[in-house]
Amino acid sequence: MAFEFISSVLNQRKQDKLWRSRHIIESAVDCMIQVDGRHYLNFSSNDYLGLRRSTVVAQAWVDGIAEYTGGSGASPLVTGYTQAHHELEVYLAKVLKRDKVLLFNSGFTANQAICQALFSAGSRQSTDLIVADKLMHASFVDGAQACDAVFKRFRHNDCQHLSSILRSQSAVATNTLIATEGVFSMDGDQAPILELLNITQQHDAWLMLDDAHGFGVLGETGLGVSELHQLSQQKLPVLMATFGKAIGTAGAFIAGSEQLIDYLVNFARHYIYSTAMPAAQAHATLESLKANVKPDRRHLLQTRIQQFKQLAKAVNIPLLPSDTAIQPILIGDTDLTLALSEKLKQLGIWASAIRYPTVPKGTDRLRLTLSAIHQERDIVALVDALSLAISSLKKSYI
């Protein structure tokens, strides 16, 4: 019988405690969500600044739909590229100090487009090289594995290991792309950008940055890691970031030189053959970006992060070394991680359990995400619940 494997692999996934299912969010108000009729404080959202439900973004969506209707109607190279898309690209290029910007429907497609356009099968030399951080997002890894280039991965934030890989490939590599994330999505730590810059210059390579979780939050005006470290277009030739986290809308962009963007317009199949993002979405994104220039929400988020870390330390809750909104608690055991997540739900806290293959085997964790819309009392409630849940489970598993 065709596709018999489907049943067996699904059964195996259940047996391994790795089964994934969706939860219907019945309502969401500020940091509260309702699931199956129960209300929870949500600590699993990437809406780091609370802009998704802000009046600025909500009104911009309404205005955008009134002006442009709900969809785009075509791919960007046919009739799907509107004034709203153009204005968003021009704004981003100006504030990021890049020649041009290109919009994508998601960070997943943008990352895949970078790999497959720059290293497309049959059009580039087989000596081309991609070297990515071990914890690079699955979208980039999938894209790199599917293209016609040698693909290597260096140990997480280990610049010595990266250098050794580059030295071993230097005799054969023609075009080299080094890829990392600004803020790593599961650990919450940041890449050693300045060291990576030195390495790329030594090896005549391009540095590519996936700043999905830094864009909107880091930097003086919230433009992410490139602003935080003042990375020029020459230093950082390929910048990708998304709008679906801190900016509160959806979609993504790639920023770079005029030649790079023109090349992607002509050769990035993920762009050429996809319906453009709705123009109303582009309009709402632009208004959100303009509103986020003010530092109020970013400052409030930093206050909540420091408050959480201090309270957690006071009750001996072990945290990974992160100063960002992503605050993981490493458990290392699948059953215990699932049990802890469930115990927190009983206490009114929604904190998702993250397991393999999203994270490496043996690094199961709770991935807590903080937001500017959390109140001080919410952080206190989270830490109290964590302390109670961890204590309860320690007794159960002894």
Outline the structure in words.
The protein has a seven-stranded mixed sheet, with helices on both faces. It has a four-stranded mixed sheet with strand order 1-2-3-12. A three-stranded antiparallel sheet has the order 11-14-13. The chain has two domains: 23-49 and 294-397, Aspartate Aminotransferase, domain 1 (Alpha-Beta Complex), CATH 3.90.1150; 55-291, 3-Layer(aba) Sandwich (Aspartate Aminotransferase, domain 2). The protein has helices spanning 5-15, 55-68, 76-80, 83-96, 107-118, 138-145, 159-169, 193-202, 225-228, 258-267, 269-272, 279-291, 296-314, 334-346, 376-397; strands at 27-29, 32-35, 38-42, 100-104, 129-133, 150-154, 176-181, 206-210, 238-242, 252-256, 326-330, 349-350, 353-354, 365-369. By secondary structure, it is an alpha/beta fold. It contains 15 helices and 14 strands. 45% of the residues are buried. It catalyses: 6-carboxyhexanoyl-[ACP] + L-alanine + H(+) = (8S)-8-amino-7-oxononanoate + holo-[ACP] + CO2. Pathway: Cofactor biosynthesis; biotin biosynthesis. Belongs to the class-II pyridoxal-phosphate-dependent aminotransferase family. BioF subfamily. One of its GO terms (biological process) is biotin biosynthetic process.
Alpha carbon gyration radius: 22 Å
Report the CATH C-level class of the largest domain. Answer: Alpha Beta
CATH superfamily of the largest domain: Type I PLP-dependent aspartate aminotransferase-like (Major domain)
Unreliable stretches covering 5 or more consecutive residues: none
Given the helix and strand composition, which structural class is it? alpha/beta
Query: What percent of residues are in strands?
Result: 15-25%
Shape: globular
Summarize the biggest pleated sheet. Answer: 7 strands, mixed
CATH architecture verdict of the largest domain: 3-Layer(aba) Sandwich
Overall mean pLDDT: 94
- Number of helical segments with 4 or more residues: 15
Alpha carbon gap, first and last residue: 47 Å
Quickly count the domains: 2
Kindly identify the CATH topology of the largest domain.
Aspartate Aminotransferase, domain 2
The largest beta-sheet arranges its strands as 4-10-9-8-7-5-6
Order of helices and strands: HEEEHHHEHEHEHEHEHEEHHHHEHEEEH
- Tally the beta strands: 14
Give the helix proportion (percent range): 40-55%
